[in-house]
Specification:
The complex is a heterotrimer of chains A (132), B (229) and C (867). Helices cover 32% and strands 0% of the residues of chain A. Chain A contains five helices and no strands. The longest helix of chain A has 13 residues. At the B-C interface, α1, β2 and β3 of B face β4, α3, α10, α11 and α31 of C.
């Protein structure tokens, strides 16, 4: 449970210091200077296209994926990249995925689940969606 | 019709024949396997156990990979009329989001041009089969995601032949990995058919999906030995 | 065209005949043209996989003339295999292997060695045949024994009956098969005990299967039947105990793992036998009625016989020593006086020999807690259901649902025959041979000669010394001895010096302990190798002939029987990737013609294959297909060949009468019949003959004390102490060998891309498998390089740590570390463990000692671990 709460906590604490360069034009220099933006609002702004983390869709560092998580949500690397490698008894097909990139290690999808679960989730709900 | 696979890891003895069959059938490209064997050991000498779990795409009812793909507006991933989750290589933008969200680590980003099977050699006649003699799922490309298709080319054949009811029963309409198992540890078929082997296996052996907390509702069921994560 | 190693690896060695047609170096044939956008129809061919000794039914799928995939033949499900292994599944790459030998090659560098470039010269088939036939003619005129034919897997590719017929017609006794590399000690123990070899547990009815080293999930004969049969039985409730030093896949699927110290299994068997006897858990009726246990043994250890040579028992009716005939009720136990001399029953000889073999004593030797041994004995006794019968169909039969199974676990060692004899005797105590749920024996008493003492021939006729005084019961040839005899024929009294060796589909030196010595023998002869790829043996040859792959040639395939089925099958060609014109059948036929012995060859073919209704005719040639048609017709009693082409086989299911009543019941039960050799009377008599022969010829290189131990009439604890265990106590580790699924049995699997790159990162090489605690103690981690050093050499490899091996044991698998420069580097990874194994063959059978060596292990850059 601790592992799941950690990224949520870091996200909530850290988004207050969103770098201005990351913000979309229409939001520039206005409302966010007055008070910190909550992570939920920020996520909505990104999803609705009001705030752009770039359109380079890749999970490589520097692309949109990492910008959203590491910059906009200000999640520390180690909050997600918790272990160097997956344990031998974990049922995960692409076991070698992160050790090739080495630092700082594999991402347990349980960490993603913390934010990306179900209706009303903070982040885009990839998991626990209702059945079609 | 709900097509599911049941893998009985209590019966599986780890030979990896299903892995080999998948590789041959689906024009395997090194570093991007569609089916793997996860072998793990537990306990302390001399009280030891070992588990064998093969993993391929779960063809989830709520596929997170598709959600992610739609989210980036690539729309390369579909869940088709038989419930099979497929990746269209032509639409795939290689972003890797599907790989990042899959709780089972299934989609593979094929990093480079498919390598020759014999390093440094030329293509074998098998590799040299022209695109016209390959199913579209076997026309591999660099820098796109790929994964197990439930051997869609075989299921599609069942549709074309008007023999959807023979899926999982007739070898021609059954995924390759499910055909080679020496110990009958794999079953494929229609869960909605109460007489099907998969339905019986799930009922009598209490087969269940892995990692149900993700809510993806996988269409692959496992009979587990215990000790797996 | 001269071909260097580099050229060979680049594929140029393949090309002469081929490049012109295909238009490029290293080219494959062109793939059939595209068929528009339509689905290309598949062609399906039924055949038999012959990449190992399981001979699974396969269904080969072709698209546009290309082999696209291989599946198990669903038709064969009821007779043998349900699935196929990764090798079988990826078998098309054995055919599409660019590293195959494609044209005949002649050595031009007279120096032989793996470090030498043979400077291969591509030659025509005509030149190859002419060179070989000219040499053969000369040998035949001089002394045909100087030709040695050796095959390994070749026995299964075209069958050993063709080479045997050829050699018979040629006049040489030297046809040498590889069984001492595999399990000959098990076969010989069977033969010495029940008159033939081959058994299987009656798994369908067994409730407790105790496995002393047999990896039926990966690499054994019958693996593709036992795997599903055992898995089904386990689901039904059968319990499995795996007694083995390394936690194999069999142990992983067992109910109990008993990690025994390598080589010491026999004391567990003896201790359990003692327990069964002491607690009265034995089948007295079986021992008296079917076995020689009641026969009377005199002071010299031989069974007493009457004037007609019939063995004597103590008749409890007449209170006299008499032959076991109708009306006689033999005593199983007791000491008596016969002709003023003390005698006792064979059973008592065994029982008394076990006096000291308490669970505690066995525990000390075997490294297994006494209570585990005690409990195993109790479990076996309880599972045996002594005194009960059951009904299967119309047959009422002894019900003994417990069986002991083994392959190399008990066999591949210096005292292999005695180790398995101990297993057989334990099972005779229970009365489980041919019982329901027990041990099903194959072709019981098919060769009565096995119950006679060996002739202990001297001087030896055969270069492998099989059945000579050196290996009196070397009934399955002694393949590794050929090289040793070649190096010094006079030392063994061989009355000739061999001049030529033909190797057919065998990599003999590499599959033998102490490989370096084996290779040295290649200098002594002119060597021809018929092989699909450039194996180490081929690299050392004077002439290499390419061979067709199993997907390219015709053959009446060998098949495996089960307790309830048998079948006859063929292999049929579905491609010829490199347009090779001959397989070994064709080579032999051509040579027979050139040697003007075709008709004599035909005679011997008919004799060996037992072709009565469908004989080969003299005065004409046969294509491989025509030959297979004749063999098929004979074996199937005239079934149309179309059936073979369509189905690949015909099968037969056996009824319970056939399964249970045709073996020991028919051959041994009751008075006036021969008896199972519970007691090795013939072994005592063979030993006597060894003594006589040694004395008569003044043979110096036979250690009679060791033959005394090896030929003991009953197994004893000394059989748990092979030479390295006695002599190399200073080395802390036992070194064991095993096989993995991914390379098992075929050298050319080392280039198969699926087996190397698709199954996981651990299949491309082998490891030094060590216990995790041992590794921690030595300060080595997973993946570290360590040196494994034995008394004859050392090798370096990568450590794999596991809880699944004894702390005092190191395991290294076979089939890696190929040394032939004819393979690419990635296919040569890992270690060749035979390089460092000591050779102390079993004196009874000649079986190679693959699991007896001791070693030390130390980090590659560090100091040795001291005991």
């Amino acid at each position: 449970m601790k592992a799941l709460l950690r990224p949520i906590f870091s996200a909530l604490v850290c988004v207050a210091f969103l770098p201005p360069a990351m913000a979309a034009e229409e939001a520039e220099g206005k409302w966010f200077e007055k008070s910190p933006i909550g992570a939920g609002i920020l996520s909505d702004l990104i999803r609705e296209g009001d705030l752009s983390p770039g359109d380079e869709y890749t999970i490589e560092v520097g692309g949109r994926f990492h910008r959203v998580h590491a910059k906009f949500m200000a999640i520390n690397c180690v909050s997600c990249h918790a272990d160097v490698k997956f344990p031998d008894d974990l049922q995960f097909l692409r076991r070698e995925e992160y050790p090739i990139a080495a630092y700082p290690g594999a991402v347990d999808r349980g960490i993603c689940l913390g934010c990306h679960r179900g209706e009303g989730a903070l982040a885009t709900p990839f998991y626990a969606m209702p059945a079609r | 019709m709900k097509l599911v696979r049941v893998i009985d890891t209590k019966r599986c003895m780890g030979c990896r024949s299903c892995v080999a069959a998948c590789a041959v059938e689906n024009h395997f490209t090194p570093e991007a396997p569609w089916n793997v064997m996860i072998e793990s050991e537990g306990g302390k000498y001399p009280n030891v156990y070992r588990t064998f779990v093969t993993m391929n795409c779960m063809h989830c009812e709520n596929p997170p990979c598709k959600t992610a793909c739609d989210g980036v507006k690539a729309f390369a991933i579909s869940k088709n009329e038989l419930g099979v989750v497929l990746i269209d290589y032509d639409k795939c933008i290689g972003c890797g989001y599907c790989a990042a969200v899959c709780p089972y680590g299934v989609p593979q980003l094929n990093q480079q041009e498919p390598a020759r099977l014999y390093p440094g050699g030329q293509a074998t006649p098998y590799e040299a089969l022209p695109d016209t003699q390959r199913h579209w799922t076997h026309r591999k490309k660099a820098k796109v995601a790929e994964k197990c298709t439930f051997c869609w080319h075989r299921l599609e054949k069942a549709i074309e032949d008007g023999k959807v009811d023979r899926i999982g029963k007739d070898p021609a309409y059954t995924p390759a990995c499910d055909l080679v198992c020496p110990v009958d540890a794999r079953f494929f078929g229609d869960l909605d058919d109460p007489g099907s082997e998969v339905a019986k296996q799930i009922g009598t052996k209490r087969a269940a999906q892995l990692k149900r907390e993700y809510g993806a509702a996988p269409q692959v069921y496992y009979v587990l030995e215990g000790g797996e994560k | 065209m001269l071909v260097t190693r580099r050229d060979f690896l680049k594929g140029m060695g393949s090309l002469a005949a081929y490049a012109a047609a295909s238009g490029g170096l290293f080219a494959f044939p062109k793939v059939g043209s595209a068929l528009g956008g339509q689905r290309t129809p598949e062609e399906i061919v039924k055949s038999t996989c012959v990449q190992c000794v399981n001979f699974c039914g396969i269904e080969v799928h072709k698209v546009g003339g290309v082999i696209r995939s291989i599946f198990p033949d669903p038709g064969r499900r009821d007779y043998y295999n349900h699935g196929i292994c990764p090798k079988g599944t990826s078998g098309l790459f054995a055919a599409y292997n660019p590293y195959r030998v494609k044209v005949p090659l002649k050595r031009t560098n007279p120096k032989k060695g793996l470090d030498q470039d043979p400077q291969w010269l591509e030659i025509s088939w005509e030149e190859a045949f002419d060179t070989i036939a000219t040499k053969l003619k000369k040998i035949r005129e001089d002394n045909p024994s100087k030709l040695i034919w050796q095959h390994g897997h070749g026995k299964y590719l075209i069958g050993d009956k063709f080479p045997k017929a050829f050699c018979k017609a040629f006049g040489t006794p030297n046809v040498v098969h590889r069984t001492t590399t595999c399990e000959s000690a098990r076969h010989v123990a069977d033969e010495l005990t029940w008159g033939y070899h081959g058994f299987l547990p009656d798994i369908d009815h067994c409730n407790l299967l105790v496995v002393f080293g047999s990896n039926y999930f990966e690499a054994e004969q019958y693996a593709r039947w036992m795997d599903h049969a055992v898995t089904n039985a386990r689901e039904r409730g059968m319990k499995i105990v795996a007694v083995e030093p390394r936690y194999s896949h069999v142990a992983a699927k067992a109910d109990q793992w008993v990690p025994v110290r390598p080589g010491k299994d026999i004391v567990i068997l003896l201790s359990i036998s003692r327990h069964l006897i002491e607690t009265g858990n034995i089948d007295e009726d079986f021992l008296i009625t079917y076995s020689n246990a009641p026969q009377l043994v005199g002071t010299g250890g031989k069974v007493l016989r009457d004037d007609k040579g019939e063995p004597l028992v103590w008749d409890t009716v007449s209170e006299t020593a008499t032959a076991y005939v109708e009306g006689v009720v033999p005593a199983l136990r007791g000491s008596y006086t016969v002709a003023d001399a003390p005698v006792r029953t064979a059973f008592d000889v065994f029982a008394e020999s076990l006096a000291g073999m308490t669970p505690e004593a066995a525990a000390e030797i075997a490294g297994v807690p006494a209570d585990v041994i005690q409990k195993l004995g109790e479990d076996i006794a309880a599972a045996a259901r002594l005194g009960t019968t059951t009904r299967v169909g119309d047959v009422v039969q002894r019900y003994r649902p417990v069986a002991i199974h083994t392959w190399r676990g008990l066999a591949a060692k210096e005292f292999g025959v005695q180790n398995w004899r101990a297993g057989l005797m334990l099972q005779m105590l229970l009365g489980n041979p041919d019982a329901v749920g027990g041990l099903h024996l194959h072709s019981v008493y098919k060769k009565p000669a096995y119950f006679e003492p060996s002739k202990c021939e001297y001087p030896p006729k055969r270069v492998d010394l099989a059945k000579s005084v050196f290996f009196p019961n070397g009934q399955h040839d002694v393949c590794q001895q050929v090289a040793l005899t070649l190096l010094d024929p006079k030392a063994y009294g061989l009355p000739y010096e061999p001049e030529m060796q033909i190797f057919y589909a065998t990599n003999r030196p590499v599959s033998t302990s102490d490989t370096a010595t084996q290779f040295r023998s290649f200098d002594k002869t002119f060597n021809v190798v018929i092989e699909v790829n450039m194996s180490e043996t081929a690299w050392m040859a004077d002439i290499v002939l390419p061979d067709l792959n199993y997907l390219e040639a015709w053959h009446l395939s060998p098949t495996r029987w089960t307790p309830t089925t048998k079948h006859t099958a063929i292999r049929q060609p579905m491609t010829n990737v490199y347009d090779i014109p001959y397989d070994a059948f064709g080579v032999l036929w051509e040579l027979a013609k050139r040697l003007d012995m075709r008709d004599a060859y035909v005679d011997n073919i008919n004799k060996n294959w037992k072709q009565k209704k469908h004989p080969f005719e003299k005065g004409r040639d046969y294509t491989p297909r025509e030959a297979v048609e004749l063999l098929w017709a004979e074996k199937t009693k005239g079934k149309p060949f179309e059936v073979a082409l369509r189905d690949g086989f015909v099968g037969k299911k056996l009824g319970p009468e056939s399964t249970y009543l045709k073996g020991v019941e028919a051959k041994f039960k009751g008075p006036g019949k021969p008896k199972m050799m519970f007691y090795g009377d013939h072994m005592v008599r063979t030993l006597e003959k060894v003594h006589e022969t040694v004395a008569e010829h003044g043979i110096q290189n036979i250690d009679l004390d060791q033959y005394e131990v090896a030929y003991s009439p009953v197994p004893i604890k000394e059989h748990a102490f092979p030479t390295p265990h006695r002599e190399a106590g200073h080395l802390p580790f036992y070194l064991i060998t095993y096989k993995r699924m991914y390379r098992n049995q075929m050298a050319c699997d080392n280039t198969n891309p699926i087996l190397n790159f698709a199954l996981g990162k651990d299949t491309i090489e082998n490891y030094v498998v060590m216990n995790a605690a041992t590794g921690a103690e030595m300060g080595v981690r997973e993946g570290d390089q360590v040196v494994v050093e034995t008394r004859i050499g050392k090798l370096t490899g990568k450590v794999q740590l596991t809880e699944g091996i004894r702390p005092d044991t190191v395991g290294i698998s076979y089939h890696y570390g190929q040394a032939s420069p004819g393979f690419p580097d990635y296919a040569r990874k890992g270690m060749a463990v035979n390089d460092v194994l000591e050779l102390h063959p079993d004196k009874v059978s000649g079986m190679n000692s693959f699991n007896d060596t001791k070693c030390k292990v130390y980090p590659a850059a560090g100091e040795g671990r001291q005991s």
